């Protein structure tokens, strides 16, 4: 006997359904969007493509059909985006099978061809639960990816239009992963998939020298975000031409860092040291800026004690749906690997309470084991946000931290945070301290989406992102010996923080140690 899901899937692939109003409206919508995006140059020539899921509330989003514009390839010049009509569209099943294709047109038109982007679009649908995906070849998306040829990310902060990007506000840092172009678009599938997995909060991926893929929960969300991404990328290009740094809160001149200080002892003239001049400082949180006891005795217990309340009150919100989706993936992986404490999560059909019970058990086990996984850190960040908003918790930092941040800021040295906690959690901590909001002194945040803190490749990625001439122009301060080794192997200058409650470091470790950030500015 066929299951309910199989019956629904079969129903939406019938000829009657394909000829029905829902599919017809989706076809007309894609044609309209193609014409609309032709004007600003997003889908001119052979570039760009647009796809949406058929809007049928009677069918679960995951099972809805997909309407996709055809290729604009030079071998298929029939389908100029500005002249497309509803009948020119391809229709796919939810698993990527072609159900309907456009009819051929007379000479001089070429036979229709499905876009090479189809497998890339499917990744966004399958991995992000998207309702629409837009692929643009807008010139700003191409040039912005070329401003720093070695960068793996595009970063921007303190721009009003950031509010239009899902999960972002004016003070947040926008991070768009950049992948390298290939001769054929379908060859991008694996690297796009890896970028989507590595950046769970991203709603776009840039392809260097090529364009951008943007997705949203609906065609309106995808369109709004795509317009905003183009605006922000265009702004970055114009700011670059003016010599203005778009990656920092103050938007000062690019490369204005004073080069009269050394890395290990910025207060001593360069002639006393052979080290490269300091451009950036990257700070760990636990045991460096913040007592470990605050994290273990306040933050972790707060998240553990409030996880059930948080999931119950926000269960149907889009943010929590995304959190649960990430947790399910992590828990399935834990179960396959026989991780103690991992228990199966029932499907949504089992009911809200059953799902929450299993999620709470898994999250409590992860917290107890201090798992450094993105799914847990993202959920914790959302729980802590509520705590900070209700003033139930306040960020605790060491007394020397505010002055050190101001010191570096006054000398135009950029300061970043690298922690296993999510970027949102980092912003919450420094935005709600007993010393006030310290976020204006910070230029950006890194978390485990860039890599494990004990792996050297993570620091290579950070160095490329910060666009320094040499990794030795970055000073990394941490209390963890393994992190110090990884950063040193990437070419960073490294100092180990010795604070009350920190774990001991091995004898003869070979690193300079400090008990206060103020010591970095002293002999």
Give a summary of the structure in a few sentences.
This protein is an alpha/beta fold and 523 residues long.
Q: If you had to describe this structure to a student in words, what would you say it looks like?
A:
The protein has 523 residues and is an alpha/beta fold. Helices cover 37% and strands 13% of the residues. It has helices spanning 4-11, 15-18, 21-38, 118-128, 139-144, 189-198, 219-242, 292-314, 318-336, 352-368, 374-389, 401-410, 423-431, 456-466, 481-489; strands at residues 49-53, 66-68, 90-92, 98-100, 132-136, 153-157, 173-179, 204-207, 211-216, 280-283, 414-418, 444-446, 474-478, 493-497, 512-514. The chain has a 9-stranded mixed sheet with strand order 4-3-2-1-5-9-8-7-6, with helices on both faces. Helix 8 packs antiparallel against helix 10 (352-368), helix 9 runs antiparallel to helix 11 and helix 14 (456-466) crosses helix 15 (481-489). The longest helix has 24 residues, at 219-242. The protein is globular, with a radius of gyration of 25 Å. Pfam families: Aldolase_II, Hydrolase. Mg(2+) binds at residues 284, 286, 479.
């Amino acid at each position: 006997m066929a299951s309910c899901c199989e019956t629904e899937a079969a129903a939406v692939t019938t000829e009657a359904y394909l000829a029905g109003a829902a599919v017809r409206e989706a076809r007309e919508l894609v044609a309209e969007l193609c014409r609309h995006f032709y004007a600003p140059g997003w889908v001119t020539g052979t570039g760009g493509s647009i796809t949406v899921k058929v809007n049928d509330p009677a069918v679960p989003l995951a099972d809805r059909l997909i309407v996709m514009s055809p290729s604009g390839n030079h071998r298929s010049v029939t389908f100029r985006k500005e002249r497309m009509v509803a009948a020119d569209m391809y229709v796919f099943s939810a698993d990527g099978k072609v159900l309907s294709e456009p009819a051929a047109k007379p000479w001089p038109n070429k036979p229709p061809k499905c876009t090479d982007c189809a497998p890339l679009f499917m990744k966004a649908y399958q991995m992000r639960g998207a309702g629409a995906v837009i692929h643009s070849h807008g010139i700003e998306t191409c040039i912005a990816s070329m401003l720093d040829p070695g960068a793996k990310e595009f970063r921007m902060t303190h721009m009003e239009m950031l509010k239009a990007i899902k999960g972002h506000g004016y003070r947040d840092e926008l991070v768009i992963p950049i992948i390298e172009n290939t001769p054929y678009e379908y060859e991008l599938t694996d690297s796009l998939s890896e970028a989507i997995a590595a950046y769970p909060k991203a709603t776009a991926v840039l392809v260097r020298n090529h364009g951008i893929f943007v997705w949203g929960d609906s065609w309106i969300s995808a369109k709004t975000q795509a317009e905003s991404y183009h605006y922000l990328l265009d702004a970055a290009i114009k700011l670059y031409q003016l010599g203005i740094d778009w990656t920092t809160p103050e938007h000062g001149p690019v490369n204005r860092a004073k080069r009269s200080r050394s890395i290990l002892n910025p207060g001593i003239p360069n002639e006393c040291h052979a080290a490269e001049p300091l451009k950036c400082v990257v700070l760990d949180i636990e045991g460096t800026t913040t007592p470990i006891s605050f994290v273990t005795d306040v933050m972790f217990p707060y998240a553990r004690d409030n996880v059930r309340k948080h999931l119950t009150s926000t269960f149907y919100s889009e943010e929590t749906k995304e959190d649960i989706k990430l947790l399910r993936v992590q828990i399935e992986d834990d179960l396959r690997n026989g991780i103690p404490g991992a228990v199966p999560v029932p499907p949504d059909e089992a009911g809200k309470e059953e799902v929450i019970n299993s999620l709470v058990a898994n999250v409590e086990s992860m917290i107890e084991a201090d798992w450094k996984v993105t799914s847990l850190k993202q959920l914790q960040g959302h729980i802590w946000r509520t705590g900070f908003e209700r003033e139930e918790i306040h960020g605790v930092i060491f007394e020397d931290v505010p002055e050190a941040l101001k010191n570096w800021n006054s000398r135009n040295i950029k300061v970043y945070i690298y922690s296993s906690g999510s970027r949102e959690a980092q912003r919450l901590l420094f935005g709600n301290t007993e010393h006030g909001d310290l976020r204006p002194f910070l230029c950006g945040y890194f978390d485990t989406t860039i890599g494990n803190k004990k792996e050297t490749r993570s620091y290579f990625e950070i160095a490329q992102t910060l666009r320094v001439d040499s990794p030795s122009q970055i000073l990394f301060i941490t209390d963890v010996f393994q992190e110090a080794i990884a950063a040193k192997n990437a070419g960073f200058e490294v100092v180990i923080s010795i604070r009350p409650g920190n774990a001991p470091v091995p004898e003869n470790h070979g690193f300079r140690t400090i008990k206060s950030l103020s010591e970095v500015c002293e002999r």
